[in-house]
Design the sequence.
C-alpha cells in the first residue's frame, strides 16, 4: 500500500509526463506492460509491486523535468536499469513512477587519450565491453551479470564481479557522474581526471546509493588495458575447507594476486554441471574452485597459474583441470555463471544471499550454514567470490513444503544467518545491496548512530523522500 505521504498518479500527472517524454514513452493503464516493471531477479513474488506509471526518458533534461514534477506532486520515483538486481532495488514498492533508463543507452565517447568511457546509464555492461575489446581496453569492475545488467545499475549497486580481488569493484572506476538530484537539479561531479580530493567525496557517496540519493544520467568510467593473456584452472576438492585454505596461501607463498577465485560448493557445482550436461567428473566433487591468473606477460601468467596449481595440489584435490585458451577458460566460467540459474530451477522458492565475512571465517560460516540447514530442514548451497569472502548462500525451499511455510520460515532463517555472519565480523551484503529485501535486517549489522547518520544524509539530499522509497531503511 502506498504511504500516505505520497500522492497517487492521476490522469493529469500522466498528461504532464507525456508532455515531457512523448506519449510513446509513457506506459500507463496497461497492466501486462506495467507488470514487466514490477520485479527484478528476486524470485519471491511477495516482493513484486507494479508501478502506477513507467516513463522512459531520453535525456537528462527529461529526467530533470520528471523528478521536478514528482518532487512537487509528492510522487515516488524508482530508477530502473535492467532489473537484474537481487535485492528488490528497482521494484517500486510505494508505486508511483518507474523511471526506466533503457532508452538512455548511448556510449557517448571512448576517450583513448584519457582512458575513459563516457556513457549513458542504460548501456548494457557487456555492450561497452564489446566496443572496448578491439581497442585493447576494458572496464574492470563489471559484475558477472554483464550480459543483462546496465552500467547505471552497476554504479547504483557498486557492483563487483569475478575479478574484484585483483581489480576492485565499480567504485574504483567511476571518475565522473552527471546526477539529477531528488529536487531536480543537475549536478556534474568529477570528470576525466584520475585524482580528485576537492571537498567531500560525493561520487563515493552516490556509488552504491541504490537509486535513493540521485538519478545518474551520465557516467565516466576509467578503463584499463585489457590483459593479453589468461590461464584458468578448475580444482575439485572433496570439501570446501581445503579449497578455501588455498586463498591466503596463493597470496603468501605465491606472492601473487589472482584475477579470480570463485568457489562452488557441492550442490552448486554439481547442479550447474548437470544442467549443462558437463562431461567433467562432477559427481564426486564436494567443492570446486575456479582460479585465474591474467596479465601482459605470457610467461609470468603461466608461472602464476603453475603456482596456483601447486598450492591446490598440496591440498590433495580430487582433480585439477587447466585451460590456457579462451575456449577452455570460457567452459569453466560457463559452469560458474550457470550456478544461480540451476539453483533457481531446483525449487519453487529460493533466496540468493550475499553475505561477506573475513576470508579466514569462510569455513566457520559454512559450518554455521550446515547447522541452519538442519535447524530449518532446507538446503542452503553456497557459491561466490571466495577471495572477497563474499558468499551467495542460497536457501532453497523443500519442494514438498507450501508457500505459506516458506514465508514463515525464511525471515527467521535469514535473521539467524545474518546474526552468525555479523558475529564473525561480516555483513549482509557485499554487492547486491539492501534494497527492499534486506532492509528489515539492517539493524543487525549497523548501530543506531550509523543508521541515523544515513537517514540524515538521505533527508538532506531527498527532503521529500521521493527517490526509491522503501529501500535500505525499514521505514521512511
Ligand atoms: C545471474 C546473476 C548474476 C549476478 N552477478 C553479480 C555479480 O557478480 N556482482 C554483482 O555486483 N551483482 C551481480 N548480480 C546482481 C545485478 O546484476 C547487479 O546488481 C547489477 O549491477 C544490477 O544492474 P541493473 O541494470 O539490472 O539494475 P536494476 O536491478 O535495474 O537496479 C538496481 C539498482 O540500481 C538503481 N538504478 C538503476 N539505474 C539507476 C540510475 N541510472 N540512477 C540511479 N539509480 C539507478 C535502481 O533503483 C536499483 O536500486 C547478478 C544478478 C544475476 C541475476
Sequence:
Amino acid at each position: 500500500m502506498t504511504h500516505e505521504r505520497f500522492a497517487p498518479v492521476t490522469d493529469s500527472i500522466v498528461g504532464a509526463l507525456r508532455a515531457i517524454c512523448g506519449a510513446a514513452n509513457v506506459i500507463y493503464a496497461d497492466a501486462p506492460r506495467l507488470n514487466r516493471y514490477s520485479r527484478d531477479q528476486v524470485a519471491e513474488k511477495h516482493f513484486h509491486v507494479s508501478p502506477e506509471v513507467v516513463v522512459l526518458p531520453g535525456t537528462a533534461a527529461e529526467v530533470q523535468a520528471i523528478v521536478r514534477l514528482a518532487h512537487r506532486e509528492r510522487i515516488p520515483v524508482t530508477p530502473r536499469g535492467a532489473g537484474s538486481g537481487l535485492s528488490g532495488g528497482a521494484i517500486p514498492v510505494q508505486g508511483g513512477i518507474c523511471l526506466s533508463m533503457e532508452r538512455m543507452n548511448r556510449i557517448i565517447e571512448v576517450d583513448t587519450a584519457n582512458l575513459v568511457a563516457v556513457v549513458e546509464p542504460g548501456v548494457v555492461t557487456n555492450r561497452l565491453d564489446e566496443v572496448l575489446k578491439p581497442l585493447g581496453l576494458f572496464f574492470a569492475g563489471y559484475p558477472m551479470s554483464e550480459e543483462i545488467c546496465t552500467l547505471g545499475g552497476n554504479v547504483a549497486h557498486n557492483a563487483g564481479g569475478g575479478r574484484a580481488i585483483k581489480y576492485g569493484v565499480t567504485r574504483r572506476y567511476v571518475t565522473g557522474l552527471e546526477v539529477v538530484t531528488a529536487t531536480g537539479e543537475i549536478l556534474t561531479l568529477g570528470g576525466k581526471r584520475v585524482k580528485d580530493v576537492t571537498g567531500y567525496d560525493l561520487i563515493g557517496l552516490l556509488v552504491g546509493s541504490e537509486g535513493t540519493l540521485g538519478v545518474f544520467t551520465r557516467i565516466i568510467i576509467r578503463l584499463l588495458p585489457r590483459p593479453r593473456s589468461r590461464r584458468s584452472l578448475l580444482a575439485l576438492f572433496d570439501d570446501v575447507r581445503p579449497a578455501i585454505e588455498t586463498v591466503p596461501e596463493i597470496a603468501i607463498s605465491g606472492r601473487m594476486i589472482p584475477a579470480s577465485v570463485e568457489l562452488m560448493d557441492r550442490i552448486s557445482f554439481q547442479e550447474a554441471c548437470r544442467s549443462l550436461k558437463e562431461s567433467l567428473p562432477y559427481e564426486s566433487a564436494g567443492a570446486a574452485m575456479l582460479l585465474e591468473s591474467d596479465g601482459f606477460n605470457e610467461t609470468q601468467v603461466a608461472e602464476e597459474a603453475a603456482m596456483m596449481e601447486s598450492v591446490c595440489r598440496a591440498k590433495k584435490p580430487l582433480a585439477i583441470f587447466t585451460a590456457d585458451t579462451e575456449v577452455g577458460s570460457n567452459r569453466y566460467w560457463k559452469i560458474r555463471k550457470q550456478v544461480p540459474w540451476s539453483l533457481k530451477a531446483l525449487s519453487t522458492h529460493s533466496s540468493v544471499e550475499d553475505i561477506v565475512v573475513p576470508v579466514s571465517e569462510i569455513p566457520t560460516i559454512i559450518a554455521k550454514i550446515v547447522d541452519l540447514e538442519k535447524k530449518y530442514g532446507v538446503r542452503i548451497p553456497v557459491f561466490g567470490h571466495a577471495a572477497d569472502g563474499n558468499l551467495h548462500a542460497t536457501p532453497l525451499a523443500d519442494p514438498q513444503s507450501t508457500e505459506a511455510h516458506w514465508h514463515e520460515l525464511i525471515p527467521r532463517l535469514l535473521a539467524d544467518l545474518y546474526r552468525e555472519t555479523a558475529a564473525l565480523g561480516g555483513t549482509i551484503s557485499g554487492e547486491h545491496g539492501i534494497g527492499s529485501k534486506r532492509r528489515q535486517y539492517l539493524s543487525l549489522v549497523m548501530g543506531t548512530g550509523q543508521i541515523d547518520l544515513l537517514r540524515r544524509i538521505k533527508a538532506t539530499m531527498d527532503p521529500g523522500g521521493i527517490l526509491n522509497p522503501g529501500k535500505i531503511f525499514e521505514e521512511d
Remarks:
- Residues 40-41, 78-86, 89-90, 101, 121, 143-145, 149-150, 152-154, 156-157, 159-161, 210-211, 215-216, 340, 431-432, 468 surround flavin-adenine dinucleotide (CB under 6 Å).
- The mean pLDDT is 96.
- The domain at 355-445 is CATH 3.30.70.2740 (Alpha-Beta Plaits).
